[in-house]
Specification:
The complex is a heterodimer of chains A (302) and B (286). With 302 residues, chain A is of the alpha/beta class. Chain A has a single domain, classed as Ribonuclease Z/Hydroxyacylglutathione hydrolase-like (Metallo-beta-lactamase, Chain A), CATH 3.60.15.10. Chain A is built from seven helices and 14 strands. Chain A starts with a strand and ends with a strand. With 286 residues, chain B is mainly alpha-helical. Chain B is globular, with a radius of gyration of 19 Å. In chain B, helix 7 packs antiparallel against helix 8. Chain B has a single domain, classed as Hypothetical protein af1432. Classes of the chains: A alpha/beta (302), B mainly alpha (286). Chains A and B meet through helix 3 of A and helix 3 and helix 5 of B.
Chain lengths: 302, 286
Amino acid sequence: MQIKFWGVRGSIPCPGSNTVRYGGNTPCIEVRFPDIDRLIIIDAGSGLRELGNDLMSRPQPVEAHLFLTHTHWDHIMGFPFFVPAYVPGTHIRVYGPVTYEEDTLEKVVGGQMTYRYFPIREAELAANIQYFSLKEEVMDLGDGIVVKTKYLNHPVLCLGYRIEYNGKVFCTAYDTEVFRNVFITDPGHPDYDPEMAEEGEQVAAEQNRLIEAFYHDADLLVHDSQYTQQEYEEKYIGWGHGYIEYVCAAAQRSRVKKLALFHHDPLRTDDQIDEFTVRYCNKDYCGDTETFFAKEGMMIEL
Amino acid sequence: MSDQYTDTLQRYIDKMPSLSTTVTKVLEVCNRQDVSPNDLNKIISLDPVLAGNVLKLINSAYYALPNQITSLTRAIIILGINTVKNLALSTAVVGALKGHNNPYLSMDKFWAHSLCVGVAAKELAVLNKIPVSQREEYFLAGLLHDLGKVPMVHCFEKQYAQCLQQAKMGSIDLHKAEQQVFGFDHSFCGAIIAEKWQLNDAMISVIKYHHAPEKADKDHRLLISGVAIADLYANIFEIGSAGNLSPGSEQYKNMPELTDLWPGLLQQYDAVQTSIEKAAVFLQVS
């Protein structure tokens, strides 16, 4: 498997002098299987545009499985700018999670292409595009590629992906926040309920264990680490994103071989990430888990 | 008013399941932005049937999670407090009200009508810039406004069929036909249930006066007008049916709100349709 980052930023594209080295595009990861000529794309953030341009210079037609982690805007906004979608012969299978109360995946993703938002309508796309909604499941994509999914902790349904091929494992876990016990745990509080507090504690721990089990032994894990622990605790509890300190510890516990810290905050500058690299990405902090901050254009071979 | 009718009705209503105080409390809780997970969990747990239905809905339609969610505590941690709050509210109300089908008044169509009035009333609350925290009350008011028809059609099938027939021919409004046959109408009957269930004053007023908003207390006037307009909307577009095919022009004469809000509501036609489809899932749980 060859994994290439085309977008690593969270929330909104952030071009500018402060983000030029790590990149300002929102999530898009290419997973290539050169020996069997297969292609998986994870997320259609603004990084998808450049991936699309690159695909146009490769042998045609483009055939891809596009897995969306969820349908928040920063993860689907690149779709209308994906050039292969306008080329006859292209075949794209789009997968993603939807809840019953939302529109279909087709409407959510393709709905960006109405005259209100965009000059071209979805009906004008020449490619063959199919939509499939996903839950927690295991999929056999043929040629020995297996994709497993896991619900994460985000304000909308959001899936982590585990791709297994040829004895190697590539995993994504974003956007997600550590599960917390939201019930009152202070015995001195008038509304304290010991059973609720205890069950809450157990469920949160159990859900966190399930996510760790999902990426256990991964050769590469791409994980939401938008914040530092201090930022998270001061301002961002409940926003559905991870913090670096927790992610590094959890990845080590799960014997992850390589950890890519991902979904950088829009305010995060290149210089800050360099500082964090010195602070966190070393053997003292992360042990045997080789840790780094994901960078646009970076390629990893498993 | 005939004693024979009111006695039968009263006996029927006495036997109706009580809308436990839970619903009133859930409603109260849903109107507060800062409700704590502890409070929500406690309130829902007080009513085992409601708690069961919330879990059933989460496990079936909502997320289709592979691991069954077996407790509210679990649901709140995994799905978040807002999701659970909304599910509880809608399930509580609809669960308590589902009736059996009747050859003359289809309960499916009746609920489709009620849902439409609820959704359209909430849309009107938006147009009227009612604070978010009070909009759920508009939905509930619309959902409940015709409540009184349920026992009437079940207790007096033949007589009620006669009222429906008159309304169908367009000669007279259904509530007027009811008055002629029974000496009272579904507003009266609905109010008895609302009082039994200890719904708040606003909700009782809606049920009592949705065909005569001008008689209502000034405090509840806006809510009642919202429901009355939403009712007109549902009847004109024939979304579901609660038996009234002749939207009476008289009751709208004294409603200046109609001229202000009607065009805005019409523009929201697609949004209302979509909301009805979304809300319909709650009717599948009983």
